Amino acid sequence: MEAFGNIVIGIGKEIPKDQTKTKLTSESDLKAKALRRPRRSEGEGKAKAISRSRRRLFDDGDYLKSIVPSQLIAERGSNLVVINPGSAHVRVGFAHQNVPYNVPHCIARLVKGEQKKAVHDQNLNTQATPAQQMEREKAYDMIASLLKIQLLNEEAPNNSFPRKMGRVDGYAPQQNRNNPHFSWADVMEKKSNLSTLRDSKTTEAYSLELSKPLNGEGPDSDEFKFKEFICGEEALRISPSEPYRLSRPIRRGHFNIFQEYSLQQVLADLCTIWDWILVDKLHIPPEDRNLYSAVLVVPETFDNREIKEMLSIVLRDLRFSTAVVHQEGLAAAFGNGLSTACVVNIGAQVTSIVCIEDGVALPSTIITMPYGGEDISRCLLWVQCHHHAWPSINTTPTTKPIDMVMLNKIKESFCQIREGEFDAVAIVHSYEEDKPVGSHKTRLSALNV
């Protein structure tokens, strides 16, 4: 007998009658079995209740006929999960949600007994030669002249147009909340074989113990251990001194495969990240995922082999009952109620353009460029260093992910797409090992590039 999803195909073999009889169980056996069954926690009880309601949609054929239309609309899409993988972030959520969860697409695994080496962007030139530096200077001067940006030693003719300054707290009042400082992630967890802390310890003492620096003088190794892996934003806030290796499965719109990061490792990290999001964010345990269907929304940069591998993860490893693949450009057009459109998608690492006509993506119109928002953030840092506007701190977004998070926040709060010149005063944070977070108020220049 072979099973394909929900369809079972039999070979036609007759089953003996004695195997079809149901074995009766005595009342004492049922009571003993009930006593051996472990108690469910409150979270597990809610998950089981949700599973029973989902199962009712499939088992009861008259259920959809008996409910009112408003209830049907409220439950529509509740058993459909949308997964949109990207280079820097992955967006996952239910189909009826207005805003999905936007999680950094990275994972940090604990390194045991080997030299730690972070996985960087292989397509990124981190060390430019003097000739490349001169080429960058010429390109910047040309762009500055086109955008009418004055150099620091130049003044406007007759001072007719004074330099524009932004607010101290940002260009808009609400942008002050978008520039906070970050703290290092907690990489320790309590060992599962231990019970609660000693009665002499209070909750406040326990919190203080977790916040100690992990340099050998932190929590007791008999009670705490390093987490095996950390996903999402916490993985970007791990101190460089901790024994973790940061990996990004997708870079520049493709699997990040090279000599030290094989295809099997990429697929394993993708499965771990997506499974963590389903459990931690959507609260869908693995045993209930056969009641859900998945929509895999893929960018136009992936090839057929990469799409096949991701679809295998969704069906085989994550255990969804059914899955369908959609192009990102088509999903954007249909989501806005359009059948014909030109979709321009500016992502963190890739910019793509595709034309949609009568609900069909035209392959000849697809254009992909390997740069995006993160490159603008690094360009922002380079421009500030060029204008001597950046504080004298060690900011290396290519080796310290937390610096890239800070630069992205500054870019989102202050950068403008406009002609002329725009300056602003911002708070820049420095993150150094074994030092508290430093705050530096500085004047940022040429924020419109």
UniProtKB/TrEMBL annotation:
Q: Which residue windows does the record flag with biased composition (Basic and acidic residues)? A: 18-32
UniProt superkingdom: Eukaryota
Q: Where is this region: Disordered?
A: 18-52
What is any Pfam family matched here? Actin
Mind telling me which InterPro entries this protein's record contains? Actin (IPR004000), ATPase_NBD (IPR043129)
**Family (UniProt):** Belongs to the actin family.
* Protein name, per record: Actin-related protein 8
**Species for this entry:** Vanilla planifolia
Q: What is the lineage of its organism?
A: Eukaryota, Viridiplantae, Streptophyta, Embryophyta, Tracheophyta
